[in-house]
Write a structure and sequence with these properties.
The protein is of the alpha/beta class. It contains twelve helices and 15 strands. An eight-stranded parallel beta barrel has the order 3-4-6-11-12-13-14-15, surrounded by seven helices. The structure holds flavin mononucleotide and iron/sulfur cluster (SF4). Iron/sulfur cluster binds next to α10 and α12.
Length: about 350
Protein backbone atom coordinates (compact mmCIF):
# COMPACT_ATOMS: atom_id res chain seq x y z
CA UNK A 1 0.00 0.00 0.00
CA UNK A 2 2.83 2.45 0.79
CA UNK A 3 3.59 2.63 -2.92
CA UNK A 4 -0.01 2.66 -4.10
CA UNK A 5 -1.71 5.72 -5.61
CA UNK A 6 -4.14 7.96 -3.79
CA UNK A 7 -6.41 10.46 -5.51
CA UNK A 8 -7.02 13.62 -3.53
CA UNK A 9 -9.28 15.92 -5.55
CA UNK A 10 -7.40 16.64 -8.79
CA UNK A 11 -4.07 15.38 -7.46
CA UNK A 12 -2.91 11.81 -7.79
CA UNK A 13 -0.24 11.00 -5.24
CA UNK A 14 1.83 8.15 -6.69
CA UNK A 15 2.49 6.84 -3.20
CA UNK A 16 1.58 7.55 0.42
CA UNK A 17 4.78 9.33 1.39
CA UNK A 18 4.32 13.02 2.11
CA UNK A 19 7.12 15.54 2.41
CA UNK A 20 5.69 17.70 5.21
CA UNK A 21 6.32 21.39 5.90
CA UNK A 22 9.94 22.25 6.67
CA UNK A 23 10.97 25.90 6.90
CA UNK A 24 14.26 26.54 5.18
CA UNK A 25 15.55 29.50 7.15
CA UNK A 26 17.71 31.92 5.18
CA UNK A 27 16.90 30.51 1.73
CA UNK A 28 14.81 33.60 0.92
CA UNK A 29 15.77 37.16 0.00
CA UNK A 30 13.56 39.82 1.59
CA UNK A 31 11.09 37.03 2.32
CA UNK A 32 10.78 36.25 -1.38
CA UNK A 33 11.31 32.82 -2.88
CA UNK A 34 14.76 32.31 -4.40
CA UNK A 35 16.22 29.65 -6.69
CA UNK A 36 17.46 27.91 -3.50
CA UNK A 37 13.85 27.35 -2.41
CA UNK A 38 12.80 26.19 -5.87
CA UNK A 39 15.76 23.84 -6.20
CA UNK A 40 15.02 22.33 -2.77
CA UNK A 41 11.43 21.46 -3.70
CA UNK A 42 12.48 20.22 -7.14
CA UNK A 43 14.95 17.85 -5.47
CA UNK A 44 12.37 16.61 -2.98
CA UNK A 45 10.00 15.96 -5.88
CA UNK A 46 12.67 14.08 -7.85
CA UNK A 47 13.34 11.95 -4.74
CA UNK A 48 10.03 10.18 -5.21
CA UNK A 49 7.61 11.43 -2.54
CA UNK A 50 3.91 11.23 -3.43
CA UNK A 51 2.87 14.67 -2.25
CA UNK A 52 4.61 17.82 -1.05
CA UNK A 53 3.34 20.31 1.51
CA UNK A 54 5.37 23.52 1.49
CA UNK A 55 7.01 25.02 4.49
CA UNK A 56 4.89 27.42 6.56
CA UNK A 57 4.37 30.56 4.48
CA UNK A 58 3.13 33.60 6.34
CA UNK A 59 -0.19 35.46 6.06
CA UNK A 60 0.95 38.61 7.91
CA UNK A 61 4.39 40.30 7.93
CA UNK A 62 4.37 40.95 11.70
CA UNK A 63 3.45 37.31 12.44
CA UNK A 64 6.43 35.46 10.99
CA UNK A 65 7.99 32.51 12.83
CA UNK A 66 11.42 33.67 11.66
CA UNK A 67 12.54 36.92 10.01
CA UNK A 68 13.35 35.09 6.75
CA UNK A 69 10.06 33.17 6.42
CA UNK A 70 8.49 33.07 2.95
CA UNK A 71 5.92 35.84 2.48
CA UNK A 72 2.42 35.07 1.32
CA UNK A 73 0.89 38.28 2.64
CA UNK A 74 0.83 40.25 -0.60
CA UNK A 75 0.31 39.76 -4.32
CA UNK A 76 4.03 40.18 -4.96
CA UNK A 77 4.42 36.74 -3.33
CA UNK A 78 2.53 35.01 -6.12
CA UNK A 79 5.39 34.97 -8.61
CA UNK A 80 7.84 33.18 -6.31
CA UNK A 81 5.24 30.72 -5.06
CA UNK A 82 4.32 29.91 -8.64
CA UNK A 83 7.95 28.97 -9.37
CA UNK A 84 7.84 26.40 -6.55
CA UNK A 85 4.47 25.06 -7.73
CA UNK A 86 5.72 24.75 -11.32
CA UNK A 87 8.97 23.00 -10.36
CA UNK A 88 7.02 20.38 -8.38
CA UNK A 89 4.30 19.98 -11.02
CA UNK A 90 6.98 19.51 -13.69
CA UNK A 91 8.11 16.44 -11.73
CA UNK A 92 4.54 15.12 -11.75
CA UNK A 93 3.63 15.81 -8.09
CA UNK A 94 0.90 17.78 -6.38
CA UNK A 95 1.82 20.57 -3.99
CA UNK A 96 -0.10 22.13 -1.11
CA UNK A 97 0.96 25.36 0.62
CA UNK A 98 0.99 25.47 4.41
CA UNK A 99 -0.38 28.86 5.49
CA UNK A 100 0.59 30.24 8.85
CA UNK A 101 0.27 32.96 11.50
CA UNK A 102 2.90 32.93 14.26
CA UNK A 103 0.67 33.91 17.23
CA UNK A 104 2.79 33.81 20.41
CA UNK A 105 5.90 33.18 18.30
CA UNK A 106 5.35 36.13 15.95
CA UNK A 107 8.35 38.19 14.92
CA UNK A 108 8.54 41.11 15.12
CA UNK A 109 5.12 40.89 16.76
CA UNK A 110 2.82 41.98 18.47
CA UNK A 111 2.34 38.46 19.77
CA UNK A 112 -1.37 38.03 19.26
CA UNK A 113 -3.17 35.10 20.90
CA UNK A 114 -6.81 34.26 21.74
CA UNK A 115 -6.54 35.50 25.34
CA UNK A 116 -3.81 37.14 27.45
CA UNK A 117 -1.23 34.61 28.49
CA UNK A 118 2.38 34.41 29.64
CA UNK A 119 3.88 31.38 27.96
CA UNK A 120 7.32 29.87 28.39
CA UNK A 121 9.11 29.63 25.07
CA UNK A 122 12.63 28.24 24.85
CA UNK A 123 12.91 28.65 28.64
CA UNK A 124 11.85 32.32 28.68
CA UNK A 125 8.53 33.96 29.61
CA UNK A 126 6.71 35.54 26.65
CA UNK A 127 3.60 37.72 26.96
CA UNK A 128 0.83 37.04 24.46
CA UNK A 129 -1.84 39.69 23.94
CA UNK A 130 -5.50 38.63 23.67
CA UNK A 131 -7.22 39.48 20.37
CA UNK A 132 -10.33 41.58 19.81
CA UNK A 133 -13.07 40.15 17.60
CA UNK A 134 -12.08 42.63 14.89
CA UNK A 135 -8.53 41.31 15.00
CA UNK A 136 -9.80 37.73 14.71
CA UNK A 137 -11.89 38.67 11.67
CA UNK A 138 -8.85 40.37 10.13
CA UNK A 139 -6.77 37.21 10.56
CA UNK A 140 -9.60 35.15 9.03
CA UNK A 141 -9.51 37.46 6.01
CA UNK A 142 -5.71 37.21 5.79
CA UNK A 143 -5.86 33.40 5.65
CA UNK A 144 -8.56 33.56 2.95
CA UNK A 145 -6.63 36.13 0.90
CA UNK A 146 -3.49 34.02 1.23
CA UNK A 147 -5.32 30.91 0.02
CA UNK A 148 -6.55 32.85 -3.03
CA UNK A 149 -2.95 33.91 -3.75
CA UNK A 150 -1.79 30.29 -3.42
CA UNK A 151 -4.44 29.24 -5.91
CA UNK A 152 -3.31 31.98 -8.31
CA UNK A 153 0.26 30.71 -7.89
CA UNK A 154 -0.84 27.26 -9.07
CA UNK A 155 -0.81 25.48 -5.71
CA UNK A 156 -3.22 22.52 -5.57
CA UNK A 157 -4.46 23.52 -2.15
CA UNK A 158 -3.61 24.92 1.25
CA UNK A 159 -2.99 23.45 4.67
CA UNK A 160 -3.92 25.60 7.67
CA UNK A 161 -1.09 25.52 10.19
CA UNK A 162 -3.08 24.75 13.31
CA UNK A 163 -0.21 23.11 15.21
CA UNK A 164 3.09 23.69 17.04
CA UNK A 165 2.10 26.61 19.33
CA UNK A 166 1.26 28.97 16.45
CA UNK A 167 -1.90 31.07 16.43
CA UNK A 168 -4.55 28.56 15.37
CA UNK A 169 -3.27 25.93 17.82
CA UNK A 170 -3.70 28.46 20.63
CA UNK A 171 -7.37 28.84 19.65
CA UNK A 172 -7.90 25.06 19.56
CA UNK A 173 -6.50 24.31 23.02
CA UNK A 174 -8.36 25.18 26.21
CA UNK A 175 -5.00 25.49 27.95
CA UNK A 176 -4.31 28.62 25.92
CA UNK A 177 -7.78 29.81 24.92
CA UNK A 178 -9.64 31.31 27.88
CA UNK A 179 -12.14 33.36 25.86
CA UNK A 180 -15.71 33.48 27.04
CA UNK A 181 -17.27 34.49 23.70
CA UNK A 182 -18.05 32.36 20.63
CA UNK A 183 -14.31 31.67 20.10
CA UNK A 184 -13.72 30.01 23.48
CA UNK A 185 -15.13 27.25 25.68
CA UNK A 186 -16.62 24.34 23.72
CA UNK A 187 -14.65 22.47 21.04
CA UNK A 188 -16.88 24.04 18.40
CA UNK A 189 -16.08 27.52 19.69
CA UNK A 190 -12.35 26.87 19.93
CA UNK A 191 -12.38 25.45 16.39
CA UNK A 192 -14.53 28.32 15.09
CA UNK A 193 -11.69 30.36 13.55
CA UNK A 194 -10.17 27.52 11.49
CA UNK A 195 -13.66 26.30 10.57
CA UNK A 196 -14.69 29.76 9.37
CA UNK A 197 -11.44 30.05 7.41
CA UNK A 198 -12.03 26.66 5.74
CA UNK A 199 -15.60 27.47 4.75
CA UNK A 200 -14.61 30.80 3.27
CA UNK A 201 -11.65 29.33 1.36
CA UNK A 202 -13.97 26.68 -0.06
CA UNK A 203 -16.36 29.41 -1.24
CA UNK A 204 -13.58 31.56 -2.74
CA UNK A 205 -11.36 28.84 -4.22
CA UNK A 206 -13.92 26.28 -5.37
CA UNK A 207 -14.59 22.58 -4.85
CA UNK A 208 -11.43 21.36 -6.60
CA UNK A 209 -9.08 23.23 -4.30
CA UNK A 210 -7.63 21.00 -1.56
CA UNK A 211 -8.04 22.26 2.00
CA UNK A 212 -6.30 20.50 4.88
CA UNK A 213 -5.32 21.26 8.43
CA UNK A 214 -2.30 20.29 10.50
CA UNK A 215 -3.28 20.31 14.14
CA UNK A 216 -2.62 18.70 17.49
CA UNK A 217 -5.02 15.77 17.42
CA UNK A 218 -4.91 15.74 21.19
CA UNK A 219 -6.01 19.35 21.54
CA UNK A 220 -6.08 19.04 25.33
CA UNK A 221 -7.73 15.62 25.05
CA UNK A 222 -8.13 12.96 22.38
CA UNK A 223 -11.93 13.30 22.64
CA UNK A 224 -11.65 17.00 21.78
CA UNK A 225 -9.26 16.21 18.92
CA UNK A 226 -11.70 13.67 17.48
CA UNK A 227 -14.65 16.05 17.90
CA UNK A 228 -12.70 18.74 16.05
CA UNK A 229 -11.73 16.25 13.31
CA UNK A 230 -15.40 15.57 12.64
CA UNK A 231 -16.14 19.28 12.51
CA UNK A 232 -13.30 19.89 10.07
CA UNK A 233 -14.60 17.07 7.89
CA UNK A 234 -18.14 18.46 7.97
CA UNK A 235 -16.81 21.91 7.03
CA UNK A 236 -15.32 20.50 3.81
CA UNK A 237 -11.77 19.84 4.94
CA UNK A 238 -10.12 17.31 2.60
CA UNK A 239 -7.48 15.82 4.90
CA UNK A 240 -6.15 15.92 8.45
CA UNK A 241 -2.44 16.10 9.28
CA UNK A 242 -1.99 15.14 12.90
CA UNK A 243 0.91 16.53 14.93
CA UNK A 244 1.08 18.33 18.30
CA UNK A 245 -0.78 21.49 19.24
CA UNK A 246 -0.37 24.41 21.62
CA UNK A 247 2.30 22.61 23.59
CA UNK A 248 4.52 19.62 22.86
CA UNK A 249 3.44 18.42 26.30
CA UNK A 250 -0.19 18.39 25.20
CA UNK A 251 -0.04 14.72 24.35
CA UNK A 252 -2.15 11.76 25.29
CA UNK A 253 -0.78 8.63 26.96
CA UNK A 254 -0.19 5.80 24.49
CA UNK A 255 -1.74 2.43 25.45
CA UNK A 256 0.50 -0.63 25.59
CA UNK A 257 -0.67 -2.11 22.27
CA UNK A 258 0.41 1.05 20.43
CA UNK A 259 3.63 1.52 22.37
CA UNK A 260 5.83 1.41 19.25
CA UNK A 261 4.27 4.76 18.21
CA UNK A 262 4.56 8.14 19.91
CA UNK A 263 1.59 10.18 21.06
CA UNK A 264 1.25 12.06 17.76
CA UNK A 265 1.18 8.96 15.59
CA UNK A 266 -1.14 7.18 18.06
CA UNK A 267 -3.51 10.17 17.92
CA UNK A 268 -3.51 10.05 14.12
CA UNK A 269 -4.38 6.34 14.23
CA UNK A 270 -7.28 7.01 16.59
CA UNK A 271 -8.59 9.92 14.51
CA UNK A 272 -8.42 7.83 11.32
CA UNK A 273 -10.95 5.43 12.89
CA UNK A 274 -13.47 8.28 13.26
CA UNK A 275 -13.41 10.14 9.94
CA UNK A 276 -13.80 9.38 6.24
CA UNK A 277 -11.23 11.86 4.96
CA UNK A 278 -7.57 10.84 4.68
CA UNK A 279 -5.30 11.17 7.69
CA UNK A 280 -1.56 11.87 7.57
CA UNK A 281 0.58 10.67 10.49
CA UNK A 282 3.91 12.30 11.26
CA UNK A 283 6.80 12.24 13.70
CA UNK A 284 9.56 9.72 13.99
CA UNK A 285 8.25 7.42 11.28
CA UNK A 286 11.85 7.02 10.37
CA UNK A 287 12.23 3.59 8.83
CA UNK A 288 10.76 1.91 5.79
CA UNK A 289 9.37 -0.77 8.08
CA UNK A 290 7.46 1.74 10.21
CA UNK A 291 6.14 3.61 7.17
CA UNK A 292 4.97 0.35 5.59
CA UNK A 293 3.35 -0.84 8.80
CA UNK A 294 1.26 2.31 9.27
CA UNK A 295 0.02 2.49 5.69
CA UNK A 296 -0.14 -1.18 4.72
CA UNK A 297 -2.30 -1.96 7.75
CA UNK A 298 -4.64 0.94 6.94
CA UNK A 299 -3.91 2.60 10.29
CA UNK A 300 -3.45 5.88 8.41
CA UNK A 301 -3.62 6.92 4.75
CA UNK A 302 -0.31 8.78 4.46
CA UNK A 303 2.94 9.01 6.37
CA UNK A 304 4.89 12.26 6.43
CA UNK A 305 8.66 12.10 6.71
CA UNK A 306 10.49 15.34 7.37
CA UNK A 307 13.98 14.58 8.73
CA UNK A 308 14.36 11.29 6.80
CA UNK A 309 13.82 13.16 3.51
CA UNK A 310 15.99 16.08 4.66
CA UNK A 311 18.73 13.55 5.35
CA UNK A 312 18.21 11.96 1.94
CA UNK A 313 15.99 13.50 -0.76
CA UNK A 314 16.00 10.06 -2.42
CA UNK A 315 14.42 8.32 0.62
CA UNK A 316 11.20 7.29 -1.24
CA UNK A 317 12.97 6.16 -4.43
CA UNK A 318 15.55 4.21 -2.44
CA UNK A 319 13.01 2.51 -0.19
CA UNK A 320 10.95 1.54 -3.21
CA UNK A 321 14.07 0.03 -4.81
CA UNK A 322 15.03 -1.78 -1.59
CA UNK A 323 18.10 0.43 -1.03
CA UNK A 324 18.95 1.75 2.45
CA UNK A 325 18.61 5.59 2.53
CA UNK A 326 21.27 7.78 4.21
CA UNK A 327 20.34 7.64 7.88
CA UNK A 328 19.29 10.77 9.80
CA UNK A 329 21.35 11.29 12.96
CA UNK A 330 18.47 12.84 14.97
CA UNK A 331 20.68 15.81 15.85
CA UNK A 332 20.31 17.40 19.27
CA UNK A 333 19.14 19.85 20.44
CA UNK A 334 17.41 20.16 17.05
CA UNK A 335 17.67 19.34 13.39
CA UNK A 336 20.37 21.55 11.88
CA UNK A 337 18.12 22.43 8.97
CA UNK A 338 16.57 24.85 11.48
CA UNK A 339 19.85 26.72 11.43
CA UNK A 340 19.55 27.37 7.80
CA UNK A 341 21.09 25.00 5.36
CA UNK A 342 21.54 21.55 4.07
CA UNK A 343 25.32 22.02 4.27
CA UNK A 344 25.08 21.68 8.07
CA UNK A 345 23.28 18.35 7.94
CA UNK A 346 25.63 15.57 9.13
CA UNK A 347 23.65 12.96 7.15
CA UNK A 348 24.41 14.90 3.97
CA UNK A 349 28.06 15.32 4.96
CA UNK A 350 28.41 11.60 5.69
CA UNK A 351 26.85 10.69 2.35
CA UNK A 352 29.11 13.13 0.47
CA UNK A 353 32.18 11.72 2.22
CA UNK A 354 31.14 8.17 1.35
CA UNK A 355 30.73 9.14 -2.29
CA UNK A 356 34.10 10.95 -2.48
C1 LIG B 1 13.98 22.09 9.97
C2 LIG B 1 12.53 21.84 10.26
C3 LIG B 1 11.59 22.79 9.91
C4 LIG B 1 10.21 22.55 10.14
N1 LIG B 1 9.28 23.46 9.70
C5 LIG B 1 7.96 23.19 9.86
C6 LIG B 1 6.97 24.04 9.29
O1 LIG B 1 7.26 25.01 8.58
N2 LIG B 1 5.67 23.74 9.54
C7 LIG B 1 5.30 22.63 10.26
O2 LIG B 1 4.11 22.38 10.43
N3 LIG B 1 6.22 21.80 10.76
C8 LIG B 1 7.53 22.04 10.57
N4 LIG B 1 8.46 21.14 11.01
C9 LIG B 1 8.01 19.87 11.63
C10 LIG B 1 8.03 18.73 10.59
O3 LIG B 1 7.09 18.95 9.55
C11 LIG B 1 7.71 17.38 11.26
O4 LIG B 1 6.44 17.43 11.84
C12 LIG B 1 8.74 17.01 12.33
O5 LIG B 1 10.06 17.20 11.86
C13 LIG B 1 8.56 15.55 12.78
O6 LIG B 1 8.66 14.69 11.68
P1 LIG B 1 10.00 13.79 11.39
O7 LIG B 1 10.22 12.95 12.61
O8 LIG B 1 9.66 13.00 10.17
O9 LIG B 1 11.13 14.75 11.20
C14 LIG B 1 9.81 21.36 10.79
C15 LIG B 1 10.78 20.41 11.15
C16 LIG B 1 12.11 20.63 10.88
C17 LIG B 1 13.12 19.56 11.26
S1 LIG C 1 20.46 17.90 10.38
FE1 LIG C 1 20.54 16.07 11.70
S2 LIG C 1 18.40 15.76 12.34
FE2 LIG C 1 18.35 17.13 10.56
S3 LIG C 1 18.08 15.77 8.78
FE3 LIG C 1 20.29 16.11 9.03
S4 LIG C 1 20.99 14.38 10.28
FE4 LIG C 1 18.75 14.49 10.50
Amino acid sequence: MLFSEYKLKGVTAKNRIVFPPVVCMNFTENNRVTEKNVEHYRNVAKGGAGLIITEAICVEPTARLHPTQIAAWDDESIEGLSKIAKAVHDEGLGIIAQIHHGGIQSVPGPKKVPSDITATLYGKPVDGIGMTKEEIKKVEQQFVDTAIRCKKAGMDGVELHGAHTYLLSYFLSDNTNKRTDEYGGSVENRARLPLDIMKRIRKECGDDFIIGIRYGGAMTSLEDGIAAAKMFEAAGCDYLHVSYGASPREQVPVPEEYSEWNSMVYTAIMIKKEVNIPVIAVNNIDTAERAHKLVDSGMVDFVALARPILADYEWPNKVKAGIEPNPCFHCKPACRWFMGALVNCPARKAAAKKQA
